[in-house]
């Protein structure tokens, strides 16, 4: 009983101090950490179809279909299955996959959460924040300059 009274006192103390803990979403947009992992963004022009992202995915979220010449025909991602571990982004040698800070996606059925390469290419940036800028500083050292422009936008 004493524990319950202590916890209620703590709750009332925080409720009456005037600080806000919630955001009136969707009227106000919440602050998201720069390292937040949201919906994937895919660049078909940068992708070399090496299938490393498909192999490293722990729960088979990514499916890639290629033809006999290893040209990519389909790139499918099931957002509903994704655990946002960022392994696909880390293993990609040409930065064809980026996890954006966009968390605003919905679907009525499971099939609505299965995205193809065109849908992923059209995923908007969240508040125009480029995820390449929020990566760890040593990433540019091994990706290198001069690999071409980023064509996600």
From TrEMBL:
Matching Gene3D superfamilies: 3.30.70.3270
EC annotation from Swiss-Prot or TrEMBL: 1.6.5.-
Regions of compositional bias (Basic and acidic residues) in chain numbering: 131-142
The 4Fe-4S ferredoxin-type domain, residue ranges: 38-67, 73-102
Region: Disordered, residue numbers: 131-153
Gene Ontology CC annotations of this record: membrane
Molecular function GO labels: 4 iron, 4 sulfur cluster binding; metal ion binding; NADH dehydrogenase activity
Claim: Metal-binding is one of the keywords in the record: yes
The protein's enzyme class: oxidoreductase
Keyword set, alphabetical order: 4Fe-4S, Iron, Iron-sulfur, Metal-binding, Oxidoreductase, Repeat
Biological processes per GO annotation: aerobic respiration
Annotated PANTHER family: FORMATE HYDROGENLYASE SUBUNIT 6-RELATED, NADH DEHYDROGENASE UBIQUINONE IRON-SULFUR PROTEIN 8, MITOCHONDRIAL
NCBIfam families, alphabetized: NuoI
Protein name, entry field: NADH dehydrogenase-like complex subunit I
Gene: nuoI1
